[in-house]
Amino acid sequence: MVIGISIILGAPESVTNILQIISAWSTTLAFVILFKKIYPGLRLKDFVKEQFAPKIRLSVLSIAVIIQVIIIAVTIFLLSITNDTQNLALSFTGLGLLFFAFLDTLVRGPLGEELGWRGYALNELQKKYSPLKSALITGGLWGGGTRHYGLPRAIPE
Question: How far apart are CA 97 and CA 151, in angstroms?
Answer without folding.
Answer: 8
